[in-house]
Design goal:
Layout: H1 2-16, E1 38-42, E2 45-51, E3 65-75, E4 90-95, E5 104-106, E6 109-114, E7 122-131, E8 143-146, E9 156-161, E10 164-169, E11 178-189, E12 200-202, E13 208-210, E14 219-230, E15 233-236, E16 243-246
Parallel strand pairs: 1-15
Antiparallel strand pairs: 1-2, 2-6, 3-4, 3-7, 5-6, 7-8, 9-10, 10-13, 11-12, 11-14, 14-15, 14-16
Length: about 250
């Protein structure tokens, strides 16, 4: 009888307090964990990217995202490595979505370049987000990447025509252990930063490209990267020199 009265009292208390539906524990009110962290090597830098979480851990809409912390650690030989050690990771980037500075935002995706790297060292990354109350998400997926010596960048030239620009380059010599995979073409306008995504990816035997998507009177700037396979990894070179082209009937 006492147990029955106890549960009746709990129900009455919840009704009196206006409780409706399942209770949400405080630890479920944090941002949901990020699960699409990616790291790519471009030149001598790593491009680190992930998507903004849209929900809280329990599934509700995330409204008070305050920022991200990106962590990195050096991966040591197996007999020395200790991922769980207190000082294994350090924060390499603290990001406020309202003041991105050198962080790129493409839709819901955030990216930045990490340049504090040593050749042949392996690094592991993870990222967490936090809300305005300071509550932090669980760790994202973890990504390992070994810093390799990148392939050589092509030397680019441009031949202007009345309605296009033809980009030309010589195929750079591959070093031992490299397998040439192709080239990535990039384009920007004015004072823009060269975008992270190429306008075209070409095969390894390509030596020229004609841009079919130019607007009349607009001045464009172009660059190209070599793509090589080194071991199991695809690595892009640094950007080539930048050339310009414009669709203008007067030229």
């Amino acid at each position: 009888m006492k147990k029955y009265c106890f549960w009746i009292g709990i129900v009455l208390l919840l009704v009196a307090c206006g409780k409706r539906g399942p209770l949400v524990l405080p630890e479920a009110l944090v941002p949901a964990a990020i699960n699409d962290l990616r790291v790519e090597q471009k030149g001598n830098r790593f491009l680190v990217c992930w998507s903004r979480p849209g929900k809280e851990e329990w599934g509700g809409f995330l409204e008070n995202l305050a920022g991200f912390r990106v962590f990195r650690r050096d991966v040591l030989p197996p007999d020395q490595d200790c991922e769980e050690c207190p000082n294994a990771y350090r924060v390499v980037k603290l990001i406020d979505p309202e003041y991105l500075q050198d962080v790129f935002q493409i839709g819901s995706r955030y990216c930045f370049f990490d340049s504090e790297l040593q050749n042949r060292n392996t690094y592991q990354y993870k990222v967490v987000s936090f809300n305005k109350d300071g509550a932090t998400s669980k760790d994202s997926n973890k990504v390992r990447k070994t810093k390799l010596v990148p392939p050589a960048a092509p030397v680019l030239s441009a031949m202007k025509t009345p309605d296009s620009v033809i980009l030309q380059w010589k195929i750079p010599s591959a070093t031992q252990g490299e397998s040439l995979e192709g080239f990535s073409l990039y384009r920007k306008q004015g004072n823009e930063v060269m975008p992270l995504s190429p306008i075209a990816t070409l095969k390894a035997d390509s030596t020229s490209f004609s841009d079919p998507h130019m607007e009349y009177g607009v001045l464009y700037y172009y660059a190209v990267r070599t793509i090589a396979k080194i071991g199991p990894d695809l690595v892009e070179s640094d950007l080539s020199n930048i050339v310009e082209g414009k669709f203008s009937l007067a030229e």
